[in-house]
Amino acid sequence: MRTVITLLRKDLRLELRTFETVPAMLLFSVAVFVIFHFGFNRSTIAGQLAGGVLTVTVLLAALLGINRLFVAEREQGGFDGFLLAPVDRTSLLVAKAAALYIFLVVLEVIAVPAFAVLLLGPPLGPPLLGLVAVLALANLALSVIGTLVSAIAVNTRARDLIGPIVALPLLLPALIATARACGPLMAAHTSGSPPGKWILVLALYDGVFALIAYAVFDFVLEE
Predict the structure, then answer these.
(1) Cβ proximity of 100 and 140 under 8 Å
(2) Residue 19: exposed, middle, or buried by beta-carbon count in 10 A (0-12, 13-18, 19+)?
(3) Does the structure show a pLDDT above 70 at 163?
(4) Contact, 219 vs 151, CB < 8 A?
């Protein structure tokens, strides 16, 4: 855990000094909401359409963070230094996934209220706790799979292209579950609790891919 905390602190300090990732994700998400606002030619949306728009926007913004996740290590020789250090290599996976998770949380703290102002018809207050639970599980899937894919893509010439191409098929079940879970929460008449079936799918998907990423990350790092 000491190694994880050290690596996570480094990534957070780097972002606070450069502001390269999170501001880009925020600006992109707000721009996408504006595009949807005028593209639908409707003042408000609700239900499954609103859940799909929010899910797609978070996904596209997350891809920006995924593409930038290992760039500093690649450009500054961080991979070589880490491989030579006497530490558990999966600590890099945990630290990078935690950093991406924090980036996504910061994104959603601003993007979700912007979505409610620009597009959402029903009030966001009643389903807020359910939405937080759904997004927390979705963020975990994006963080774990995004970190694994970013580690694979960063050593390729077309890393900005390879990352989304590999990540999107892997994330598809989690994205479907997220959109289906968010839809009822954004309906005109909602109970305020997400569907249990889709929450279970998201949780199971997170657990399975966390184990897969933990098992193969050493080999990915060596390659």
Answers:
(1) no
(2) exposed
(3) yes
(4) no
211 vs 75, more confident = 211
Note the pLDDT tens digit of each residue in 93-146.
899 999 999 999 999 999 999 998 888 888 887 788 889 999 999 999 999 999
Residue position matching structure tokens 């891919």: 209
CA distance 94 to 1: 9
What is the rounded CA–CA span in Å between residue 151 and residue 70? Answer: 7
Model pTM score = 0.91
Question: With helix as H, strand as E and coil as C, how does the chain read?
Answer: CHHHHHHHHHHHHHHHHHCCCHHHHHHHHHHHHHHHHHHHCCCCECHHHHHHHHHHHHHHHHHHHHHCCCHHHHHHCHHHHHHHCCCCCHHHHHHHHHHHHHHHHHHHHHHHHHHHHHCECCCCCCCHHHHHHHHHHHHHHHHHHHHHHHHHHCCCCCHHHHHHHHHHHHHHHHHHHHHHHHHHHCCCCCCCCCCHHHHHHHHHHHHHHHHHHHHHHHHHHHC
Q: How far apart are CA 148 and CA 206, in angstroms?
A: 13
29 or 220: which leads in pLDDT: 29
In angstroms, how far is CA 106 from the centroid of its own chain?
11
The answer to whether residue 79 scores a pLDDT higher than 70 is no
Q: What does the chain come to in residues?
A: 223
